[in-house]
Write a structure and sequence with these properties.
The protein has 140 residues and is mainly alpha-helical. The protein has a two-stranded antiparallel sheet with strand order 1-2. Helix 4 crosses helix 5 and helix 5 packs antiparallel against helix 6. It is elongated and about 75 Å long. It binds zinc ion (ZN). Zinc ion binds next to loops.
């Protein structure tokens, strides 16, 4: 008969037997104090490794505007509360990111249109002339 495998609790250092079905990663006994202390240490370690995560999440929640799917598809840049962004990151940074976002949206839409036209067998020269004018107008 094999002896049951005991291991030592990483908190109280008392020997314990792993719970049935628990993985070999279980390092803490079943005592409530030890489980709480292990959780506290794990949270402290995580916060040390991710010191700004809470601030990032709160900032992201402030910046994201609720939009419908239709609104978002029409204008993805509107999904950001830019006035709030100016308050949080400053005017120059907010304007830079907003304008760059607009450029990216136009680029993505025009690229998709190009790919669709090519898939339909239409060359770039057969695209409507107003496409370029539309892009220029959107960037202004
Ligand atoms: Zn313990």
């Amino acid at each position: 008969m094999a002896f049951p495998k005991y291991t030592r609790c990483s908190i109280c250092n008392k020997p314990f037997r792993r719970s049935k079905g628990a993985s070999s990663k279980q390092r803490v006994c079943t005592a409530t104090e030890c489980k709480h202390e292990a959780h506290r240490r794990a949270c402290a370690k995580w916060r040390k490794e991710h010191p700004f995560r809470d601030r990032e999440v709160r900032l992201a929640k402030r910046l994201i505007r609720r939009t419908t799917l239709e609104e978002w598809l029409r204008d993805p840049v509107a999904a950001i509360d830019w006035a709030q962004a100016r308050d949080d990151v400053g005017l120059p940074t907010a304007v830079l990111v907003e304008e760059f976002s607009k450029v990216l949206v136009v680029w993505a839409r025009e690229t998709v249109r190009q790919l669709i036209a090519e898939a339909k067998g239409l060359g770039p020269k057969t695209l409507p002339v107003r496409t370029r004018e539309t892009v220029s107008a959107k960037l202004e």
